[in-house]
Amino acid sequence: MSSRILDRRDFLRVLGIGGAAATLAGCGNTSIESGKELVMSYVQPEDFVVPGVGVYYASTCTQCGSGCGIMGRVREGRILKLEGNPQSLISAGKICGLGQAGVQVHYNPDRLRTPLMREGDTLKPVSWEKAQASLNSRLGPASTLAGNQIAFLTGEISGHQKVMVEALLESFGSDNHVVYDALSTVTGRAASKAVIGESLPVLKIDQARMILSFGNDFLGSGVSPVYMAAQYARFRKAPRGTLVQIEPRMTLTGANADRWYAIKPGTEGVFALGLAHALLAHESYAHSLPAELEAALKPYDKDTVSEVTGVHAEAIPHLAGMLWEKSPSLVLSGPSAEGHVRGFNNAAAIQLLNLILNNRGRSLLGSAVHPFPQLVSATGSYSALVKLNQDMSAGRVQTLLLVGTNPVFTAPTFLPFANNLSKVPFKVAFVTQLDETAHQCDLVLPLLSPLEDFGTHVASYQPSGVEVQIQQPLMEKLYPETRGFGDILLELVKLRRPEVYKAFPDYYSYLKTAVTKAKPVFKATTGDDEFWEDALRSGVLRLDLPAAALESKEGASVVQVDTPRVLDTDVHYPFFFVPSVRADLRDGRHANLPWLQESPDPLTTVVWDSWVDIHPKTANEMQIREGDILEVQSATGSMRAKAYLFPGIQPDTVSMPLGQGHTAYGRYADGMGVNPFKLFDPMFDEKTGELALYATRVIIKKTGENALVVKDEGPTSLQQNRKLVATIGADQAQLAKENAHVTE
Amino acid sequence: MNVCIKKLMVWLSLWALVGSALAEPFAPGGAIGSQTDDGYNALGPVVEQPFEFPHNVHAGQMGINCMYCHTYARRSAVSGIPRLDKCMGCHKLIESVKDKPRIKKLFEYWDKKEPIPWKKVHDLPDFVRFNHERHIQRFYFREKRSIRETCGYCHGDVASMTTARRVKALSMGWCISCHQKEHLENASTTKTSNGPNDCWQCHK
Amino acid sequence: MIHTTDERDIEVERRFVPKAKDINDEIAWAQINKDVLRSMERPRMMYWVIFLASLALFSFGVYCEVRQYQSGLGMADLENPQVWGLYIATFIFWIGMSHSGTLLSAILHIMHADWRKPIYRFAEAMTTFSLMTAGLFVLVHLGRVWQFYYVVAYPNERWTWPNFNSPLVWDATAIGTYLTSSIVFLYFGMIPDLAICRDNAKGFRRKFYWLLSLGWQGTDRQWANFRVTYLTVACFLIPLAVSVHSIVATDFAVSQQPGWHITSFPPYFVAGALYSGCAAIITLFIILRYVFRFEEYMTMPILDKTCRLTFAIAMVWTYLNLIEYASVWYGSDPYAKETLIFRATGTYAPYWWAMNFLGSVVPFALAFKSLRNHIPTMMVVSLLLNLGMWLERFMIVTPTFAHGYYPWTWTGNWWPSWIQWGIVAGSFGWFTMLFMLFCKIFPAVSMYEVKEMVYHRFMARKARAS
Amino acid sequence: MSKAHTLALYSDFEEAGRAIQELKSANLQGFKMDDVILKSPIEHPELSEMLGSRPVYVQFFTLAGAVLGSSIGFTLIASAQANFLVQIRGGRPIVPLPPDLVITYELFILIGVFMTVLGCFIGWKLPGNRSPIYNTSISEDKVGILVKAEAQTIPQINEIFNRHQPLEIIGEQGR
Amino acid sequence: MSLSNLIKNWSSLRVRRPYEGQYKGKDYKWAMVIDLDACTGCNACTTACYAENNLPVVGKESFAKGQAMHWIRIERYWGPGDHMTEEFPQRGAQFLPMLCQQCEAAPCEVVCPVGATHHTPDGLNSQVYNRCIGSRYCSANCPYKVRYFNWWQYPERAWPNPLELQLNPDVTVRSKGVMEKCTFCVQRLTEAKNRARTENRLVADGEVTTACAQACPTSAITFGNLANEKSTVAKMWQAHQIKLASDVQEKDDTVRGYRIFEDLRTYPSIVYLEQVRDLEA
Question: Where are the domains of chain D?
Fold first, then answer.
C-alpha cells in the first residue's frame, strides 16, 4: 500500500477542486442545462476510486492528546467528514465535537499558506527556498548554537514528532525541550503519584458503583473524554452507579451528577478530610490509615467542615454512608480542587479517600509500561514555561522553536513572556494558522494540516494495554507551500546528522521504517510492507499488556492535615474567581473553528462570546440582570463581559470561560469575548509551583451597560411543566430488565 | 353571429398567446405540448466539446457496451466519464488511427497528464439526484433489457451521434411518466412494480 | 300612479326615523352627474397632498422590500420561532378591511337599505384594493417569492400539485375568488356610471370609458339583466366574504398552536373584519367628503348610520373576543391558558391591553350622537379603532410564537426590524395610492343609484303632496 | 320593407309612460311592441313591464355555473390528490373531505359568479348589437323611447310621441 | 389517469394515518431512541450534524437574533416546573437533544401549501428544498420548533474558500428562503438502501445510522428500522411499551420510554428514555 498512498496523492491532485465547485452550485443551477458545466474526469485513478462513492481512511485525531482513532470519509479527493474509528480502543467508533471540527483546521480559510519572515515590524510572505535558507543558516551545519541555547517549546507532543524534536535538540547537545500546557494537570498527577503510586492511573469508571468527583470534568474537558464518555455510559447501565460531584462551578460532568454540591473554591481538601474522618467511623474502614493521621483528622467534624466549605453539614455523613454501601467506588480530583496554593494537598486528601475505600486494584489500576518510552506523550506544565521565561530573560536562549502552543495568549499577565520572547534573536513558529505567538516570531513556517500529514501518536491516557496511533493523510495537500512538521525537522536533522538520517528521503519513509522496525514488539508475523499497510488501514497498533500494580511508598503520609480554618474574606476582592474550561475551546487553541464557536457551551448555551457566570441569588443582591456588562477586576488585571445568571455556581464565586479573547487568530476567533488568562493572580501551588488557576480573587463592578447575551437558550431555562425531560428515580427504573429485553 | 365567433376566435388565440408566453418560465426543459410517442422530445443544444468524440464509431460501428467506458454507471450514482488511461489502453495499440487529429489531441492530454475538460450534456439541476446504478441494475441486470435500450431511454440513440446531445426533456414530469409505468421486476417473472414516488428519492 | 307601495314605505320610515334626511331629495339628476364628474376633474389640493404622501410611503416600502428580497428575510429580524412577524398580522388586517365593502354593497343592497347608495362604491373599491394589498403581503412574506406559482393548482411539467390540505391553499383559492368576484362586482355595478363618464368625456378618456362601459345605453333589457346579475353576484358575495375570513381564521384555528387552536376563531375573525372595515369606511368617508367636495352626498345622516352600524359590530366583536378568552380560560388546554396569561402579563401586555381598550371601550364614543356628528372626533376614533384591530392581529400572531408549546424557543422581547415596519407602512401607502387613483379615474359615488334614491324620495313626496 | 328607428326623449317617466301606453293601444302597422326599447338613466321596472314580457335568463347560467363549479372542482382536486405522486400527509387521508369541500365551495362561487356575469353579457347580446340611436342626455336625466318600425310607420309613431311633450325626437339622420 | 385512479383506489385513499400495523410487512420505518440517562449534553451530535448536512455557521449576529441553524440542538433545563425550587441544581441539569421528531401525523405536513414536506413510505417527514417557497407555515405549526429557515443567503457567507470543499456532495446546499430540518440523514439511508437493493436484500440492522448516532460518545442515540422486529430500535420500542400509532400509551410505571408532546397526537418517531437520578444521593 505504500505505493498506493503516493499514487493516491497523485490522483487527488488531479481531482481536488473540480468536485467542490459542483457542490456549491447547489443553489445556482436550477434548471436543465447542457454544456455549461465541466464534467469531472480522471487521468489515472486507483481502481477503488469510484466517483460518487465515499471511501473511509483511518487516521488519528490530533485535536487533543487523547489519541482517538478516526476515520475520514473521502470522496472525489476531498475529506468530507470525520468519524470515530471502531478499531480504536479509545474512540471505539465515536467522536466528540472537537474531533469533528478537525476538518475545519484543515479547510480553515485563515490557514497560513506560505512561509512568513520578519522584516522590521511585519511578517512578509517569502518563498520556501528563502525560508529554508534562513532556517539552514541558523540551524544548519554552520550553526554556532550549542547546548541549551536552542530551545523547543511545544504543547503536549508524542510519537515520532516528539522523537524528531528531541533528535534535533540532541544534535545541538540541547535538552531544552519545553513542554507547556496552560491547563496543566501536573499538581493532580503529582498528588496521585504520591498517594496512589501512579500519576495517571487507569480509572475503571464502568466498574465503580459510585464516583465521587471533586471538580473532575472527565466527560468534558478532562483527559480522553470520548473514552470516558463510553465508560460513563456503561457506568450508568445496570447496576447503575451513582455520580456525586463537588465543585465551585458546575462542569459538564457535574451537570450529569446524581447529586451536585457547590463548594467554596480551595476547600475541597478540607471536605475530603472531613469525609475521610466520617468514613473511618465504619468498622470496616476504621484502621485503614496510620494512627497519627487518624488522630489529626479529629477536628474535621462535619460542622467545622461545613463552615469552611459552605457545603451542608449533613452532606458528609450522607456521602460517607453511600460510599460505605457502594463499593468499589472511585474518588477523583479535578482541576478546580487542584488549582490552589494548597492544591497538591487538596488532591492528596482526595486521593486519600481512595486509599481508605480500598479502591486500588479494583476501580483504580496501574497503566501498562509502554515499550516505546520515547514515543510517550510529554506532559506540559506551567513551571516549564516559567523556567524558559527566565532563560529568555537572561539571554540564554538564542533560538526558540515553537509548535502547538500559544504562550503569548495563555501566559498570565505577570509573566512577561511576550517581552522576553523579543529578547530571543531567532524565533521560529510552526503553525497551520497564525496566532498571537507566531505573530511575534521571526520566521513562521506553514505546516500541513493534521489531515494532510503523517505521524504517530501515543495517547496521554491509555485505558488498557498500549497503542501507537497512526496518522495518515486523508487528502492531498491544499497548498503547495505547506510542509509537514516531521519533514521540516527531518530536513534539519539530516543537515546536522547526515550519517544517521540520510537514508530517509522524507518523513514518511522515516516513519515507515521506524514503525516496521517495531514489528516484533507487536508480535506481527507479516512482511514489513504488509505490517505497515495493516497499521495504516486500522489506524492503530495495539498490544495487550497487563496492568501494572499500584504501589506507593509515601501513601497517606503525604497528606498534611492542618487545623481547618475558615477562609478569610477579602474586602477588596470579595469573589472567588474560577475559570471554566470548555470541552471544545480548551485553552483557546480551537477558537478559530467556526463549528466550535457556534456550538453552544453545554451549560450556558452561550456561543461566540465570553460571559461571567454569577449565581442568581448573588446577582439579585447586586441587582445584576442577565446581559449587564460587568467589570471583573483582580489584583492583576480587569476585563469586561456580560453577566450570565447561572445557578450551578457557588454564590461567592464568579466564573468566566477560557479560550476566547483572541486578537490575532483568524476571522472566527478575533474579537470574540475576552481572555481570562490575563486575570490570574500570581498564585502557585506550594508543592509543584504550578500556576494556581482557581485561586484568583476578584471584585465585580457593574458598568451600567447592558447587551444581549448570545445564547441558544430562550428566556426560560425550565421545562415549564411540560414533559420534556422526565426523570425517574434509580430505585424505580428497571435498567437490567430493559437491557435484557433488547439483548435477548 | 359569424362575426361573434370570429371575434371570439381572435380573443381566444390572443389569450392562448399570452398564456403560452406566461407558461414559458413555468416549463423549464420543455413544455407539455412537445410530446412525441415515446414521451417528451426536446432536443438540447449542440455542446462544443474539447474534441469531437465519435460515439457512433465506438458504440455504433464497434458495438462497444456503454458500460465498458462508463464503468461507474452500475455501481455509482454517476456514470462517469471514462478515465484517460482507459482511452489510452486501447488507443496505444491501435496504430491505424494514431495520426487522426482527434487521437493526436488525446495523446496530448495524456502526455500532459491532464484530464480532458469535457462539458456536461445531461446536466440536471443541482437539487436533482439521478441514480444511474439503480436504473442500470434494474433494467439491464435484472430485467435483462439491452444496453442500448436501457441507456437510450434517457440518452437517446447515442450510437448514431458523434458527441452526445440531449434528446429528452429530462423534466420531472417526464421522469414520473416512466416511474408510474409498471415494470417487470426481473426477466423471469410477470410481477411488476413501478418506480418510487417519494420526493426524497431524487431531492435531498 | 303606481307609487302606492312607496307611499306606505315612506309612512313607516317617517314614523320611526323622523329626523334628518339621508340626502337632499330635491337635488337635480343633472346636478348629480355634474358634481360627481367634477370630482374626477378637479379635487381639492388635499387630494394631491394625500396622493404624493402615499406615493412616498409606498416608495419607501418598495425600498425595504427590495433590500429584503436581495438579502433574505433575515433583514426583517424574523427568527425561529418568530417566523411570521408583522407580515401575516398585517395580511389579516387588510383582508379584514376588505369585508365591510361587501357588507355595504352586498348585504345592505339585498336588504334595500337606501342610505348605502352614496357610499357603497368607494367601500367596494376599498374591498378590492385592500385585498390587493393583502395579496401583496402574501408575496412579501414568502421566502422564495419568485416561486409563488407553486401554490397555484395548474397542470405543469413537474406533474405536481399544491397541498390541498393546507389552509394557505384554501386562502389562495378563497382570496383569489374573492378578489376576482369583488373586481367583477365593483366593475359590474359601475357600468351605468361608466356610460355617464363616456357620455361626458373627450379624447382618449372617452375611448377608455367607451371600452369599459360595454355599450351601456340604459335600455330596459340591459337594466333587467343588470338587476338580476347584480343581485345574484351580491348573493354570492355574502357567503364568499364570510368564507374568506373564516378561512383566514383557519390558518390559525386549524393549526395546533396554543392561542390559535380555538373553535370560535372563524366568527371572531369575521366580526373583526367587519369591524375594522367599517372603521376604515368612516375614515375614508371623511377624507372623500372633504377632498372631493361630496358634502351633498356623503351627508351627516349617512355618517351617523355608518357609525351606529360600526358600534353594533364593535359590540359583536367585543362579545366574541370575551368568548374567546372565556373559552380558553375555562377550557382544558393548559398551554392555551398559559398563552392567554402571557398576553395579558408578558412582554406584549401593553399592546394587549391597548387592543382591548381600543377595540371595546373606544367604540362607545360612537354611541353618542354629539360625537357621531363631530367629524374630527370621528376621524380620530375611526383611526383608533383600526389601530386596535391591527393590534388584535399582532396579538394573535406574535405572542403565540413568543410563548408556544416549546419553552426552549420562547422569545423574550422580540421586536420587528425597521424593514418590517417600512413594508407595513408602504402597504398603507400602496393602498391609499391605489384608492386615490381609483377615485380620480372612476366615479366614487354611484350616480345612477343616487338618482334612484332621489327619484324614489321625490316621487314619494309628490305622491304625498297630491 | 326597410326598417327605421326613431328615438323620443322625455323629461320624466310619467310622460314616457303615457307615450308607451298610447303606442301600445295605437295598434300601428309594421310595428311590434317588442321593438320598443326604453332607455333611462335609472331602472324603472314598472315602465319596463308595460313593454311586455322580456324574460331574463341569467339565473340559469348561475345555476349551471354553480353546479359546474362544485362538481368539476371536487373532481379535479380529488383526482389531483390521487395522482401517481401520492402525497401522503401524516394524520390525514390522501383524499381528505373537509379541505376539498372548502376549495370546492370557493370554486362553486367563483364559477357561479363568472357564469352569472357571462349570462348577463349574453343577455346584453355582447359584443355588438347596439341600438343605433342614442343620446347622451339619457345617461343624465332623460328618458328615451326607441322604436324600430317600418320606415313608413315612423311618422305615425313620431306623431304619437309628439302628443306627450317630448323634449326631442331623433331620427336616424339626426334631429 | 388520475380520475380512474381516484375511483379505483377510493377506499385506500380515504385511509387515515397512522394506524396500528401500518408498517407491518413494509420494508422500512426509520425510528430512533434517545436515552436521556446516557446523554451528557456534550454537543458532539450537533457538530456531527453540521459536518454531515452542510449546516451553515450563521455567525454571532444572526445567532443573537435566533437564526441559528442546528438541526439537532441540545437543550439544557434546570428543572421541570416554572421556577427553581432549590438554590442549586442539585440533580444536575436535564439535557435534551431535540431534533425533528419525524412525526407520523406531522403538523407541518398538513399545512405546507405546496407540499414541500410530506411523508415518505419509510415513515420519514421529508422536506424538499426545491419545492419550498418559504411560507414558514410548517415551522409555525411545529410544536417542537425544530424547523429552521434560511433567513440569509448562507452559501455566500458561511463557507469562505476553502471551507466549501468540506460540503457533503450528497446533501443540497440550501439557498435563502427555504425551510430545512433534520432528515434522519436521508442521504445515508438512500445509499444504504441502494446498496441493499443491488445485493437484493434489505438494509441490515446497524448497517446505517445517522451522523448524530454515529458520533455520540455515550451511544445515547439508537437508530434503526422499526419495521424490522428484530432490530435494536424495535426491541427498545417494545421494551419501553411504545406503540407508534397510539397517543396514550398503556405502560408500566417503571418503564422509561415516552414521546414528547404525545397528547398533541403527532405520533413522533423518536422515543426518549427518561433520565435516571439516584434520588437517595
Answer: 3-52+136-171, 58-123
Given the DSSP bridges, would you call strands E270-273 and E30-35 parallel, antiparallel or unpaired? parallel
pLDDT tens digits, one per residue of A14-28: 333 333 333 333 345
Residue C111 — very low, low, confident or very high, per pLDDT cuts 50/70/90? confident
At C181, is the pLDDT very low, low, confident or very high (cuts 50, 70, 90)? very high
Interface test with chain B among D81, D83, D85, D122, by most B beta carbons within 10 Å: D85
CATH of E23-273, one of 3.30.930.10, 3.40.30.10, 3.30.70.20, 3.90.105.10: 3.30.70.20
Neighbours of A544 (CB within 10 A): 11
pLDDT of C119 strictly over 50: yes
Q: Tell me which chain D residue has its CA closest to the CA of residue C219.
A: D39
Give pLDDT, residue B119.
86
Pure H helices in D85-153 = 97-123
Q: Do D102 and C170 touch (CB under 8 A)?
A: yes
Answer whether residue E33 shows pLDDT above 90.
yes
* b/e burial code for range E152-191 (CB count within 10 A of at least 16 → b): bbbbeebbeebbbbbbbbbbbbbbbbbbbbbbbbbbbbbb
CATH topology of domain D3-52+136-171: Alpha-Beta Plaits (3.30.70)
* Domain ranges within chain C, ordered by starting residue: 4-465
Chain A from 645 to 684: CB within 8 A of any E CB: 647-648, 651, 667, 672
pLDDT along chain B (204 residues), means of 10: 56 55 39 39 79 89 90 87 86 86 89 85 86 91 89 87 85 86 86 88 86
Q: Identify the residue whose cell numbers are 504520591.
A: A194
Grid coordinates standing for B118? 469535457
pLDDT tens, position by position, A269-317: 999 999 999 998 888 888 788 888 888 888 899 999 999 999 999 999 9
For chain A, what is the radius of gyration of the CA atoms?
Answer: 27
Give the pLDDT score at D41: 86
Q: Structural domains in chain A?
A: 1-107+452-479+520-544 (2.20.25.90), 116-182+379-447+482-502 (3.40.50.740), 186-365 (3.40.228.10), 575-706 (2.40.40.20)
User: Helix/strand/coil (H, E, C) string of A457-471?
Assistant: ECCCCCCCCEEEEEE
Q: Are A719 and C407 within 8 A, CB to CB?
A: yes
Closest Cα to residue A417, out of A405, A407, A426?
Answer: A407
Is the Cβ pair D80, E119 closer than 8 Å? no
CB contact under 8 A, E118 and C163: yes
Say if E103 is an interface residue toward chain D (CB within 8 Å): yes
Reported as a single tens digit per residue, the pLDDT across A535-571 is 888 899 988 888 888 887 778 888 888 888 887 777 8
The ranges assigned to domains in chain E are 23-273
Identify the CATH class of C4-465.
mainly alpha
Q: Which of E172, E271, E181, E168 has the alpha carbon at shortest distance from E224?
A: E271
Mean of per-residue pLDDT scores for chain A: 88
Rounded distance between C-alpha atoms, residue D8 and residue D39, angstroms? 10
CB atoms within 10 A of CB E149: 27
* Amino acid letter, D27: N
Distances (CA, A) of A661 to A678, B131, C32, C204, D173: 10, 48, 78, 72, 97
Q: How far apart are the first and last CA of chain A?
A: 42
Which pLDDT belongs to residue C134?
A: 92
Q: What percent of chain A has pLDDT over 70?
A: 96
CA distance C447 to C439: 13
Which is nearest to C388 in space by CA: C356, C415, C340, C342? C356
DSSP state of B138: I
Chain A partners of B82 at a C-beta cutoff of 8 Å? 41
Q: Do B78 and A34 touch (CB under 8 A)?
A: no
